Amino acid sequence: MCSCCPRTRNSTVTRIIYASILLLGTIVACIMLSPGVDEQLKRVRIPGFCEDGAGSSIPGLQADVDCQMFVGYKAVYRICFGMSMWFLVFAVLMINIKNSRDPRATIHNGFWFFKCAALVAITTGAFYIPDGPFTYTWFVVGCVGAFCFILIQLVLLVDFAHSWNESWVDKMETGNSRCWYAALLAVTILNYILSCIAVVLFFVFYTKPDGCFLNKFFISFNMLFCIVVSVVSVLHKVQESQKRSGILQSSIITLYTMYLTWSAMTNEPGEDMCWLPEIALSTRNVCCCGVHFRAISIHLSLYSSLSIRTSSTTQVNKLTMASKDSAILAEDGSSPDLSTGPRRVEDNERDMVQYSYSFFHCMLFLASLYIMMTLTNWYSPDADYTITSKWPAVWVKISSCWLYLALYTWTLVAPLIFTNRDFS
């Protein structure tokens, strides 16, 4: 049976397991957000558990646990608190590990039962934390951590746009040029069409003729910024310094900017909200498009936290601390021949680790905070059991949007400013 399994490296298996733990925790948090969970708990009639509904407590314990604490946004806060603290402990513990012969590397790559038990214990204990200042404090921590994670996502997304364009241009030059040129043009046009539709819908549904000046500013400024970036990307001087720069990257950047703009406007507090009544979201029911965008965001967070793609850009590899053979989805299989015996996990880090253990756990720590904010739509559960949106969440997304556009613009103009540096 072992001979049927593919060759696997220790560094790969470990990252997949940690990602699976993060995904499992996210699924549990999603279940807590599902409508009617408290009613289902009451219907099951577990002895002593939520027998009187969501407002009941669990008798027989030294600390009474409000059943309402187990559902909704507060449950998500506590589940993600447990996950993030778990990853943060490992991030500190794994600092400066050079190879797998370090005793701490054994903890990173093994002892899964004890580590999972510790995760369950931390998460369970989080439900006993009194409300008090915890909820708002953790909301602020979540905003800061999610903002940092978004910045890393933006760097990876800019690099992804450049890599996508470079790949298709190479295929266009070496293969069927007409086919790949048509594909390149079609994707670019589609991205811009979707972006234009988004701008129109934003003005229709998120502004009013006699008000909503901030939303009008967000939409107009971001639209003009995207137009400027798109024009800069096709300037003759830029094309000379970066032959692979093109309009495809700008279309991807523009479309993602529109998403960030929409996401920011949906987080505006109720008293300042400019939405039409037909699209206003309740505190417990989220529209389908919002759920889909959250799913996309969570997938992006898992992708970013794993750093599974080795970038063609050296500076991005330095950020993600990826090695030459650290791509999980595309390993070259250059490991020693194991065909003569059972195919076990190969330790490929005896001489040097393939990625920074500490940075990897730090990414998962930030990913946990980002997932927490994404699942709760950046809303803050207050002490009076109300769910409110906060202006910091709006400005975090808008500022990250501007940083995103500025970062991409810098990748275009930097070779023109620093002509003596290699930006290839």
UniProtKB/TrEMBL annotation:
Localization of this protein: Membrane
InterPro entries the record matches: TDE1/TMS
TM regions (residue ranges): 16-37, 75-97, 109-129, 135-158, 179-205, 217-235, 352-373, 393-418
Protein's UniProt keywords contain Membrane: yes
Bilayer topology term: Multi-pass membrane protein
Keywords, comma-separated and alphabetical: Membrane, Transmembrane, Transmembrane helix
Cross-referenced PROSITE patterns: PROKAR_LIPOPROTEIN
Highest taxon, organism lineage: Eukaryota
Keyword Transmembrane: yes
One Gene Ontology term, aspect cellular component: membrane
Main location: membrane
Pfam families: Serinc
Family note: Belongs to the TDE1 family.
PANTHER family: SERINE INCORPORATOR (PTHR10383), SERINE INCORPORATOR 3 (PTHR10383:SF51)
Name under which the protein is recorded: Serine incorporator 1
Taxonomic source organism: Cyclopterus lumpus
